[in-house]
Amino acid sequence: MSHDFLIKEGDKYKDFTLVSYTPIKELKSVLRELVHHPTGAQVMHIENEDPENLFCLSFKTLPSNSNGVAHILEHTTLCGSRLFPVKDPFFAMHRRSLNTFMNAMTGSDFTCYPASTQVEKDFYNLLDVYLDAVFHPLLKETSFLQEGHRLEFANPEDPSTPLEVKGIVYNEMKGSLSSVDNYLWHEMIARLVPDLPYAHNAGGDPKEIPDLTYRQLIEFHEAYYHPSRCLFYFYGNFPLQKHLDVLAEKALKKISPLSPLDGIGHQPRFKKPVQATLPYSTNETEGLENKSIHVFGWLTTMLQNQEEVIALTVLDSILMDTDASPLKKSLLDSGLCVSAESYIDGEMTEIPLVIVCRGAKKEAAEKLELHIRTKLGEIAREGIPFHLVESVIHQLEFGRMEITGDHSPFGLTLFMRSALAKQHGCDPKHALTLHEVFEELVEKARDPMFFTPLIEKYLLQNSHFVSLSLDPDPGFDARSIVQEKERLAKRKEKVTEKEIAHILKQTKELTTFQAIKEGASLECLPKVSLSDVPAETREFTLTSEKRGAFEIFHHDAFTNHIAYVDLIFDIPTLTLEEHFDLQMLCILSAELGVGKRTYDENLEYIQAHTGGVGAYASLQVQVNDPSTMTPTLQLRGKALERKLPQLFELLTDMIKNPRFDEETRLNELIQKVAHSMQSGLSRGAMGYASKLALSGLSPAGYLSNLWHGLPFYQEVQTLAKDTKNYGKRLAHIAEKIYCRGNPHLVLSCDREIYDTIDKEGFYGLPNLSMGPQSAPFQYDFDLPEVPDQIRLISSQVAFTVSGQKGAGYCNPLAPPLAISTELMESKLLHHRIREQGGAYGAGASYNAIWGHFYFYTYRDPHIAHSLNSFQAAIEEIAAGNFDENDLEGAKLGIIQHLDLPISPGSRAIVSYIWQRDGKTRQRRQAFRDNLLNLSKKDIQEAVQSELLGKKRTICIFAGEELASRENEKLTPPLPIKKIS
Length: 980
Hints:
Elements: E1 12-13, E2 16-24, E3 29-36, E4 42-47, E5 53-60, H1 69-77, H2 89-93, E6 101-102, E7 105-106, E8 110-117, H3 120-135, H4 141-147, E9 150-153, E10 163-166, H5 168-176, H6 180-192, H7 214-224, E11 230-236, H8 240-250, E12 274-281, E13 292-302, H9 306-320, H10 326-334, E14 339-344, E15 350-360, H11 365-382, H12 386-401, H13 410-423, H14 428-432, H15 435-445, H16 452-460, E16 465-473, H17 476-493, H18 497-515, E17 543-547, E18 550-556, E19 562-570, H19 576-588, H20 599-609, E20 613-618, E21 621-622, E22 625-629, E23 632-640, H21 644-656, H22 663-679, H23 685-694, H24 699-708, H25 710-720, H26 726-737, E24 744-749, H27 751-759, E25 789-792, E26 798-805, H28 814-836, E27 841-847, E28 852-860, H29 864-878, H30 884-898, H31 907-917, H32 921-932, H33 936-946, E29 953-958, H34 960-967, E30 976-977
Parallel strand pairs: 4-11, 12-16, 18-24, 25-29, 25-30
Antiparallel strand pairs: 1-2, 2-3, 3-4, 5-8, 5-11, 6-8, 7-8, 9-10, 13-15, 13-16, 14-15, 17-18, 19-23, 19-24, 20-23, 21-22, 26-28, 26-29, 27-28
Helix pairs in contact: 1-7, 4-18, 9-12, 10-11, 11-16, 12-15, 12-20, 19-24, 19-26, 22-25, 23-24, 24-25, 28-29, 28-30, 28-32, 28-33, 29-33
């Protein structure tokens, strides 16, 4: 790290002045805050040794209605700019870069543009494109029509046909609001802060999106996207000086400042509570009397009152984090609801605290509110035991110390934690250095009555309160569709000849625009080349040693005083029922009691001493033979170094002394799982569709569907009707797997922590007696013939999958098949399905280890068009309709996936899985070498051999109206089935 550049407040570099320099010991980082004169633009830089560098350009964007202007602007901003005047530079850069993350995100009061990479040249390429995109976008009207919304006739050339609304964001938000969770949050916040921008859906409400005009989009950009109003955030080990040089030259040169944006304002407090009841969409028609959701929300303190915000965050966790938390346990024990959770939004300028009670009777709202108030009053009077405070503080400490990054860059996590607070005028240091705040809070909370004033002020005596009830309505979607058709029919009645001509002209212009094929024009975009790609595959060294019946594996990595532990058992041959029970064991293991601890005592123990534990089943498909598996059950836990004795004690108890005798608790959990799966069906539709489509292709596909797909969903719903004696089945499956054979213990931590664990004899784990291994795993089931089908869900958009077999990992055809997925997306799928069809997303995916190849679309207003596009993509690549530039971009795209950063805590288990699956360094290197050396002919031959003309299985999840309408276009039409 730089120890002599901008280290004292007031230090200057060019027109930048350092206003704050803060070492962050817990993150081994330094935070610098700078201001640029004369524009007033702000810069944040978190410097450390992380090679995954990230930048993020962030703007306040405050909606005044729900027409989605901020969201649609986020999309259109990335559709060409002054220096890069191509249709979709964002999508093109995916194939000209080695990025580890590229995105743009619209929040309730901000829009940000993050990207990350480990290659310095690539970093500044991406920064150049993003800077030009946000400050000098073309914002063409055709891009607005494509990305946002437009009117078209059902037959685009026939004005006698009905009017339709089309657009990518329009369809995205139809899908988003099909999620009950998204719907209830927006409806609650709209009532809780009706006078603030948060009352509006920044993503856009499909009923209001068509009201947005192109002119309003332009004006919104002019108001908010100005360099002086941008927060420039940087993270990683690239030098700050070069970042500032780029900003000075390419973003802030000759820029006049705009006056700062007005603050968001203050929500006047209610004099009396608000109550509302709304319907929500469901595809269920039975058992609806216990499917209501009751939501209770309070508006509490201001974001600037950070001490109160942190105290409320801790209080919320104490009350509701686990099923053993006092308020949550009381709610579940009352029988008034099946599940309960709470949310506290620390990113809004005024902090809402919301409690959601699911699986309740329609008339239960008043009883639930009374129960919550009564229990809160009891807690306020009796105080909160200090051990509960310690447990929550431990969780917050763990979360702050953990180096994440498997799903998104760690730098982005820190942006969300600190930079958004800065945009609201808070000190970002407090969000990064919480130890002092925690220490002070802990001392105050030794007094059991410390939280009583907060409970009384913000919960019991707070009239700014909303009670919102959502009742299931199977006709909700159908009514919404009818209402939309009626609105459009009325609109068409009033359309003039001039407007008809305009719609026809606009449609033709957009079609022409979308048909433009960009080849040489893309060369204005910067790019990395294959010579920038690391030649060698990654390797995470794994040492091993025997201890008793255990084989112990260790990867030495800096994990910031945290150890990651995986205890792994072989799964034997199982019956169909036992496979179902295996998954229930995984879901329920960490929620039950163990040894002498009841479930609530154990949940408190987990919270007090670990960063989390869980059980996971993994298929471990062998790379040299996709039909062969060595499946495992993994108990996974993580803990701070000082808490390792407790973690190992817990893991030992979970395998030796699980409490499957807690019948009431088991029933409660199973009801909660069943309800959660029902309410999450639309949200999980893409996963269900893909697993079903692939379930007949291989043993791995079959078991994956059995474990995580519709068969599991249906079995859970059946089990929930009668859970009596289910504990005996769980005990049986646990006895078949735990404490048998020769388990493996896998650890990710630094050498010093490992030596401590070793010195302690791995806390007695290797001394456990192991019984003989159950019958080694064999796959004993016939592969099913999965028919093409449509399944009905509550959604106004479709999730479509078409799956077929492909070559396995060790087959020479595997690398070209991987490359073909990138080519299909870039040459056809993105253009036809997203740009022309209006789907939120589409692509091709290839699982080389399993030998599966599939196409998918999600939040898609079409089905037939997308299925035709899948076939066209195969034909296009088989015919060789791509050039060398396309091929190079496809190779870079696959290398991005191969080289995605793996967090320190995951490296041991990733290396272990590679080893267990036979994915040796030699095989991974051979796959990489072959991929980088592929020719156009290789790709064509692989697609012709493996995909062209081969049998495919189609599975679609969609709402009834869309399914019926689109099914008429298919030959032959597909059978339409309900979920259960």
